[in-house]
């Protein structure tokens, strides 16, 4: 029994050898730093989408005669954020869905109002 040890492997200390400081590396490093705040980002995502993005289809459909697909995209993004947050997705996935939702809604607003 003298050969047994009680030390665990430290997998989190593994560093990449190709650290060239690209934009993708900076974004993933920023997302990884926010991992302790995962619940906060889930709540921010739900509140921002509920207040800012869910009214977008109503405005675009009634005032700018946008197609009904705008409503489907908005609800799909909203529920995918809920499922990702409540399903235990990682912080990169949650922030990715949130950023994609922001980008998709901005593109829809620009396309149908101009």
Name some characteristics of this structure:
mainly alpha; 114 residues; transmembrane helix; membrane; transmembrane
**How far apart, in Å, are the first and last alpha carbons?**
75 Å
Overall mean confidence score, pLDDT:
86
* Helical amount: 55-70%
User: How many strands appear in the DSSP assignment?
Assistant: 0
Secondary-structure element pattern, one letter each: HHHHH
Strand content: under 5%
What is the radius of gyration?
20 Å
Q: Any idea what the shape is?
A: elongated
Structural class: mainly alpha
Count of helix runs: 5
Instruction: Provide the low-confidence segments as ranges.
Output: none
- Report the sheet with the most strands, covering strand number, pairing sense and barrel closure: none
Brief rundown of the structure:
With 114 residues, the chain is an all-alpha fold. It is built from 5 helices and no strands.
Structure notes:
The chain has helices at 23-33, 38-53, 56-63, 69-86, 91-113. It is built from five helices and no strands. It is elongated, with a radius of gyration of 20 Å. It is mainly alpha-helical and 114 residues long. 14% of the residues are buried. The model has no long low-confidence stretch (mean pLDDT 86). The chain crosses the membrane at residues 40-62, 68-86, 93-112. Keywords: Membrane, Transmembrane, Transmembrane helix.
Layout of SSEs?
Elements: H1 23-33, H2 38-53, H3 56-63, H4 69-86, H5 91-113
